[in-house]
Design brief:
- This protein is mainly alpha-helical.
- Helices cover 70% and strands 4% of the residues.
- The chain has helices at 2-9, 12-26, 34-39, 47-54, 56-75, 79-98, 102-117, 119-125, 135-162, 168-188, 238-249, 254-262, 268-282, 286-316, 326-345, 351-376, 379-405, 410-436, 445-473, 481-488; strands at residues 199-200, 209-210, 215-219, 225-229, 264-265, 494-496.
- Strands 2-3-4-6 form a 4-stranded antiparallel sheet, with no helix packed on it. A two-stranded antiparallel ribbon has the order 1-5.
- Helix 5 (56-75) runs antiparallel to helix 18 and helix 6 packs antiparallel against helix 7.
- The longest helix is centred in the middle third of the chain and has 31 residues, at 286-316.
Length: 501
Amino acid sequence: METLKRWMKNWKYPTSLLCIYGFFSTVKPLEPFLYPFLTGPDKNLTTEQLNNQIFPVWTYSYLAVLVPFFLLTDWLRYKPVVVFQSLILFCTTSMLLWCNGVAEMQAMQFTYGVVTSCDVAYFTYIYSMVELKHYLKATSYCRTAQLLGYTVGSVLGQILVSLELMSYNNILVFTLVLTGIAMIASILLPMPKVSMFFHKKKSEEADAEENSGNVKTLELGEGFGTTVDLSNDVKVDEAKWQQDVLDGSNGCNSGSVKSSKSGGKAGCGDVLLRLWRDFLQCFSSRTLLLWSAWWALATCGYNQTVNYVQSLWEHVEPSSNFTVYNGGAEALSNLFGAAAAYGIGLSSADWSRWGEMALSALSALEGGALFAMVFSGNIWVCYGGYILFKSLYMLLITIAMFQIAAGLNMERYALVFGANTFCALVLQTIITSVVVDSRGLGVDVVTQFIIYGAYFSVIAVIFFLRGLYTTMCRKPETETSRENLEEAFKNDAQIVTETKL
């Protein structure tokens, strides 16, 4: 019993429950076969209704509720939003099973937009429950659990469909059971006591000097410190470092620090003001702006491609006369994408210098893969092109995340990544309303993918020109004094920064 109590107080307990939730909430065997299901005898929807009236609703709803749910997640301290996400996911699956008609399916897409907007709670809950030293492991475990869930769901769906072990309706019932398990795991999650903005932990008083003055701790208002371990041969202007941390390097100004030290619950106005100041501080860097621009542009194109790729597959090879292998294509794309993202972490390339050229070359390959899917007229080429496209995106987004987060603490990490996602959704909404929506041009799926291929080709040209300038005309520039400090002392100093999200 004592062992169980100690384990429940350990960081592994909330991490394990969150991994269980992440796994079971992402095992969706029917997702790779959603298009055949909706156009088949179960729902009898047409291609035009799906592409031009139903699927665009997800983009609009996701954009509409993303920012409110970001603030609501912090105010409610994460867990209630995770539980709410599991409940809405259960409702979405139920609507998919029992509802019919365009209006009902549009409502289903709206609820699914709410589900995806709640992902912010999943990815920030763990930061309020674990210490800094466990952050990387906890994040890795949670992301791996989700990836395994998507992969297992795709493989399971392919087996059930290919061997005709279950009908589409029975697969949805099975998915409801899995979602119920995820809901139980979310309810068992412990409730965090602090959050990033609204619920702050009162920091300890004044800085302490330890180990004969070699270790300095700067309290930054969240209950954590920034520790600089100074070796014998390293000299640091401590006053300048402290001022940099308090004035900017931590992503907040002195007013924010003062508010943080006072503890308690921050007002909505103070939270919004701090968010705005942090936003301006982060995006004052030209290099960060460049990588964020690629993030937003590429994520927009990626979301559009993933949302409508099943429509293209159905156009190339109708499911009525072909045993579809959509689940196998999704599973392989997830596995290859994960392998590519992992492999890039083992690379020793100087991405600050060559990253832009890599973005250009691989974005061009993404555009080529999309063109091949459109013009080949072969379902296997379509599957192969999709696997290549998704794997390249996961590889490139990993590079972009690394470059953006290199000089940021975890609080700025969340803010910048959230801003990039919001910009991607704004662009996606514009493209959807103009190109896809029936109230806009309402083009067919083949024309859509020609546009998406051209879109990635334009991205490749832009970053080729930028990368050529970076490579030929100047050296990679350092971004902040904090980055300079970390680079200078990466072998001699230990720098630990705040991770409250």
